[in-house]
Amino acid sequence: MTEPRKTAPGSGPGTVRIERPAVEFLRMYARNWAAVAGFLVFSTIVFAALFAPLILAVDPFEMVWMPFTPPGQDGYVFGTDNLGRDMLTAIVYGARATLVVGASAAALTIVIGLTIGSLAGYYRGWVDEVLMRITEFFQVLPPLLLAMVLVALFSPTLPTVAIAIGVVTWTGVARLARAEFMRIRELEFVKAARSIGSRDRRIIWRVILPNALPPLIVNAALTVGIAILFEAALSFLGLSDPNVMSWGKLIGDNRDYLLDAPWTVTIPGVAIFLTVLAVSLIGDGLNDAFNPRLRER
Amino acid sequence: MLLAVIVFNFILLSLVPGDIADTLAGESGGASEEVMADIRRTYGLDRPFHIQLATYVGKVVQGDLGTSYYFNMPVTELILGRVGPTLLLVVTALVLAILIGTLFGVIASRRPNGLFSHFVTVLALVGFSAPVFWTAFLLIVLFVAILEIMPLSGLVDPTTPRGALAWYLDVLHHMFLPVLSLSSIYLAAYSRLARASMMDVLGSDYIRTARAKGLGETAVTYKHALRNAVIPVITIAGLQFSHIFSGAVVVETVFTWPGLGTLAFESILRGDTPTIMGILFFSAMIVIVVNLLTDLAYRLADPRIRSARNA
Amino acid sequence: MNAAAPLLEVEGLEVEFSTRQGTARVLDGVALSLEPGRTLGIVGESGCGKSMTALSIMRLVPEPPGRIGAGAVRLNGEDLLQASEKRMREVRGKDISMIFQEPMTSLNPVYSIGDQIAETVRLHEGLSRRESLEWAIEMLKAVHIPAAERRVREFPHQMSGGMRQRVMIAMALACRPSVLIADEPTTALDVTVQAQVFDLLKELQEKTGTAIVLISHDMGAIAEMADRVMVMYAGRIVEEAATEEILESPRHPYTRGLIACVPHMEEKPPPERAALTEIPGVVPALTDIGAGCAFAPRCARATDLCRRAAPPSFETGEDRRTACWLYGEAGAA
Questions:
Q1: Do A149 and B276 touch (CB under 8 A)?
Q2: In 3-state terms, what secondary structure has residue B19?
Q3: Distance, CA of A296 to chain centre
């Protein structure tokens, strides 16, 4: 109950709570070199996306050179694609769409999932029954197919894409949050809080949530990874904003030339792969840092 | 649950700005208000919401998913013609992923700090992080462009005579890359899961009992441990079936595999709403059936689940 | 009783575990001997090495982190520590079998109890599936499980703890082993069920002549079952004698403490409820035992000598040994 409340749900090792455990936590995290590498790669990508226009003053859609210039030739590090666009510029600008959609979709996923899961796990009974039916309903629909339908039926813009991804991926978070809330609400300190007459809202937010956070934060990292993969798949299929450059779109645009100019497809793929890999390494690192004992297995 | 899907579909449709009349009118290059009203009457769009809903539900229950705008044929018929290749792809990939993934997990669990165990951990990370279409393209570059031993796309070479043994072999040949692409993600995930679950089980009291009985490590691992360790794998596989189905949409598109995924994708591009909704409904139905089968498998594997399970 | 040849003999057994804090010697010079049809009790607090002794006899110490460093475990004269792993598998379950503390988790949840009993017989006796299942039913009858024909098909989760421990006993005795190691067989059970299980073990021992190693932290249980008692502390045997002698005249200060801890039911309760006695302090971590006697820090009668050097075992009576300096001078004199 003395849990400090300065906790924002989100990823990254910055969301640690109190002073000394934070140091301990960072040390645990730093001992995992893969997680540190993941964090560095991810930071680099975020940095590149933030300062894209300063680094490369070219429109990613602009034709700059002969189509299908191989990487390294004529000063084009990553080559050019089927429309003679600079791949490097496209990759750097593509990071923006990918990260923005990925992050906002993941945030939406967590908000929906956490709300439904915590309510179901805390109140149980009919609330749980109803909310879990809804969750099961969304689990039955193939998520990518539903996201495609949503984007197609409404409009192919970035907000729609982010919302569609959020709508189809929250069930995992909901289940996790529900399980955690069900477990924690039976623990002694929650009973103690209830016995001194704390209100439900206070118990949910101040008592249970801080204790349920570690697995949720780890899951949030995975959620970001999943959201990025969904965004990539949707834009690959051409179901995203046609006026925004993204990695998936780059692959989709060039897929027919795969065998002649493989770099046009592989390089954006590597970008997606590295980003998601970095995010999941961060997730693994957080997980290990939260549960130091597990590592000794 | 299915009813919920139907209602959801309908509500989704009615939320969409514009209606069938607009779409049809748009295709024929504009139409007068009269014609529009006529079309709306034909499709029952002039009636109140709840009547429309009831009509829609009634039709779907009878197996009538409407008519495809594009093919101008019943959606049900269209779907039934395409469902075979999709199931072939998805089920093969799923079964392979479970079998090989569990095997990998078991081998890794026997030496938790061994080389293979680390390989499984890395594989799981890579499998999770690689977008499935990219994996597919890499496989194409390797097997089609460099090794030149695999066909690029399709279900079967159109020149192969249908029904002959050669035809089945050709389908197998064409299946290889799509199945590999699709199963790679899940293979990675299941091997990690099976590894964790095996290590958990190997530390349990009944494994000590089995050893104290005089059983060898092989019998302990494959008889006593594996059967317990596979239960969470089955559970997760069942829960994730809708995800595999999603992955199939992408993989089918990449390999122009003539299944539901390609149909869904093309229908979305054509704005063929009844077909899209039909596929959404149909795939939900398949997922529900698979979940029931998983439950059954779960019961066979775990005798503790006799009473109703709270999933 | 000394006339009978020892069936199981353990000598100078040493087991080490490597942990992050260093190497812990969990067994140090453990020796025991057991004649056919007799019961040896091993008693001590948790963590004293009782269970490790049992696992070492079966050669089931998890390696790594554990390692059997030295010693011998002789069954009918054959040193099991030198035997091949294949030979050990023949011994386990056939010559020596074991039952464990947790009947709830010691049975595999996904196989029927009949299968699990039959598996042992099939493995060691080469019976067919059908014969072995029939034998499983016989064994269930022998451990007094009602409706054995029906229950043989049931799964562990359908049975109570006491029933499961009966199943474990049936499984352990299915091949008529000459030694049964019972590691805290009743600790997880209700008191009334405990008595039933002990009665059952005694009854089966009379019928089959199996020798039993009974491991328990409960002096009462040992007193009821065992012919001889070994008291263990921090990986060593501190006292060993016939059961009556230990109960009547415990020598080692630790044994005295253990016996003082057992509440005496038969006596009239004193007007004021006597406080339960306890031994002060806790068992030391095995990684920081110095050169002296491991019990010295908790011992009221410890001397400088105790803190400096670990005492060897002294003969303190007929067939009776105590590892304590208090008896060293007396024994030497």
A1: yes
A2: coil
A3: 28
Percent of chain C with pLDDT strictly greater than 90: 0
- Can you tell me the mean pLDDT for B155-163? 70
A237 contacts B138? CB cut-off 8 A: no
| Å between B215 CA and nearest CA of chain A | 25
Contact at 8 Å (CB) between C122 and C132?
A: yes
Residue with the two structure tokens 């705008």: B69
Return the number of CB contacts < 8 Å for A and B.
134
Each residue's pLDDT tens digit, A45-93: 888 777 767 766 666 676 666 666 667 666 666 777 767 777 777 788 8
Give the nearest chain B residue to C159 (CA atoms): B304
Q: Are A276 and B112 inside 8 Å of each other by CB?
A: no
- Interface contact C105-B211, CB threshold 8 A: no
| Cis peptide bond N-terminal to A292, omega within 30 | no
**Which residues in chain B are contacts of C94 at CB distance < 8 A?**
214
pTM of the entire predicted model: 0.78
Separation of alpha carbons B227 and B248, rounded Å: 29
Inter-chain residue contact B214 with C91, CB threshold 8 Å? yes
DSSP string, C291-314: SS-TTGGG-TT--HHHHHS----E
Distance between CA atoms of residues C114 and C103, nearest Å: 16
Rounded Cα distance between C220 and C18, Å, is 34
Rounded-to-integer distance, Cα C190 and Cα C13, Å: 34
Closest CA to B219 of C96, C116, C95, C170: C116
Q: What is chain B's alpha carbon radius of gyration, rounded to the nearest angstrom?
A: 24
Tell if the CB–CB gap between B265 and A148 is shorter than 8 Å.
yes
Q: Which two tokens stand for residue B117?
A: 């165990």
CA distance C125 to C107: 21
Residue with tokens 């339908």: A149
Q: H or E element: which one contains C315?
A: strand C314-317
SS3 state of residue A29:
helix
Residue of A nearest to B8 (CA): A137
Looking at chain C, which subunits does it touch, using at least 3 CB pairs closer than 8 Å as the criterion? Answer: B
Question: Average pLDDT over chain A, rounded to whole?
Answer: 79
In which element (H, E) is residue C215 found? strand C211-216
Q: How far is CA B295 from the centre of its chain?
A: 17
Candidates C90, C100, C123; nearest CB to B209: C100
User: Using CA of residue B31, residue B32, residue B33, residue B35, what is the dihedral sign?
Assistant: negative
| A73-80, long-range: CB < 8 A, 24+ apart | A78/A263, A78/A267, A79/A261, A79/A263, A79/A264, A79/A267
C273 pLDDT exceeds 60?
no
CA distance B162 to A79: 44
